[in-house]
Amino acid sequence: MKSIKIVLSIFASLFIFISCEKDIEFNGEITDPFIVVNSYITPDSVVSAHISESRFFLKDSITYKNINSADVAVWVNGVFKEKMNFIEKGTYIGTYKPIVGETIKIIVNVPSKAEVSSETKIYPQPVINSIDTASIWTGDRYEIQSSGSSYGNGPMTWVYDTIATISGHTINYTLKFNDNANEQNFYRLVVQTIEHYTVTDTIMQTSKDSIMTNYYFNFTDVVSGNNTTNDPTVIIGGGYYSYNMYNAFSDELFNGKTYSLTFSTNEDVYKYSPEYTYGRETPDRKEIKIYLQSISRDYYLYLKSRAAGSGGTDFFSEPVQIHNNIIGGIGILGSYTSSLVYKFDL
Question: Within this chain, do residues 114 and 131 fall inside the same structural domain, yes or no?
């Protein structure tokens, strides 16, 4: 029975630790707010940035103060290019679209604050060789809805209704691309879907509507770092499900080679009974767009640290420091170029 006593003592300790609260007075120095710069630049768009102030971590407010009076300058390969225009709510936009191979620097000056700056390089688009797909039917199943009712003190009566039939459908993808052996490269996989619906309108009779979203997909390729184990001892042992939520990866395992990247999407088709539709109509048509992005090292480290910081469920885990490349401030200046790999209708 020794092991049982140990387990009980651990749970008792945890209960005491969690249930007891104590106000701890902060005796440290409250520093002035930092300038926060966030900018993601690409040749597909003009350079823009969001400028704000950091907030003290013990303040109740969860909002950040936008800075609307900054001087934001864009430099290209060490040469001044332009000043960005203030738009609204801390957003600044220029007119220059960067070019592959250029180094873009942003310098921010705020009245009564020290200058902050950062720079990033624009890397070439990934070189795509091919993409292969395999469509797999995974069987039909049903979505069941239960409802319960009782009269007086009588027992609960449950009713189970089939509200939809589901045609299971998965698409597996193999994306082949070339990696540059002369430098370390970083990538991000993005899958988007556009769903098209026929909307009934009493005035316009019928009209077309579309919804575009970043698409959840199964990214279990070894380079993703995702842990898909179902072994419960992984959680008990202090680990947690590792989820690469931004789908960023490096060429560490395939530097200079042609790599076959694998992932899949779930394309189940739901057909609801008329009385259970509730606006959940099956789209008339769905487009899927697949992008492979080449991203800067700082952008990669920022995404990886963001994912690590939000993915931990261990009560005793250490906080994760988010990657920062803003000199004199905090935030991220990252760059990316995109290759549209695949677009098709379902």
Answer: no
